Amino acid sequence: MASVFHAYHSPLPYFPYKWQRSHPPRPSVSFPSSSFSRRCQSDARFMATRVKAAASTTPDGRALQVGIAEFYDKSSGLWEDIWGDHMHHGFYDPDSNVSGTDHRAAQIRMIEESLRFAGISEDPAKQPKRIVDVGCGIGGSSRYLARKYGAECQGITLSQVQAGRANVLAKAEGLADNVSFQVADALNQPFPDGQFDLVWSMESGEHMPEKAKFVNELVRVAAPGGTIIIVTWCHRDLGPSEESLQPWEKKLLNRICNAYYLPEWCSTSDYVKLLQSLSLQM
């Protein structure tokens, strides 16, 4: 089977890629990466400052994880009030008039556009039945996908508050038998090899300090012939004569990293190279 490459532009912009390999069957990968466009709320900046100070007292290997967990323990209620169930960007059509009231509908469009690009079949017999949501937030994607496909979905997050809230919402929506959430590390997932038809990572990869290990774990838990969808924040690809971003670009990204507990950013081409190194051909 020939492998496939696609790229298109949208207002954010997004740069999706897809890889596929048939012998032996490996997961296909769809990779729309999004640029940063969140508004920084003053309360969120204040909480980020507090949790950063707390994390600095822990061993280096755990500082980032502790900081992320505490940040979302403290701020998830705020995000839910502002964004609702889905803690990620929306997808906006080029000709649409964007309004604040449209954002929650745009978040659903983001999910649907990601599924469409990945080529998830509309045939019920071919739709995913076992899904993992890596960096699940309060479980909005998990519940949506479970309802859409009649699937079983497991979500993982570093935040105890998020996992608890996600399980409460799943029960309230009658999905407790199909959807569950737990605290776990995306770089060391508590699942056996090849368990999931669909591995879903919606705007969580930017928190991962070891991108190679992150991608390896996504591939490890994906079933042969399954699909991996990654939507993540990336900086622009470097030009042929560039060795790094411009100083002003680094300064801007560092401000975002400091506010949201993000390690160093990478580009879409960096992800492409990582995925190609795992025999996922472009």
Automatic annotation (TrEMBL):
GO terms for biological process: methylation. InterPro entries: Methyltransf_11, PiNMT-like, SAM-dependent_MTases_sf. Keywords: Methyltransferase, S-adenosyl-L-methionine, Transferase. GO terms for molecular function: S-adenosylmethionine-dependent methyltransferase activity. Residues 221-230 are annotated as: SAM motif III. Belongs to the class I-like SAM-binding methyltransferase superfamily. gTMT family. This is Tocopherol O-methyltransferase, chloroplastic-like isoform X2. It comes from Durio zibethinus (Durian).
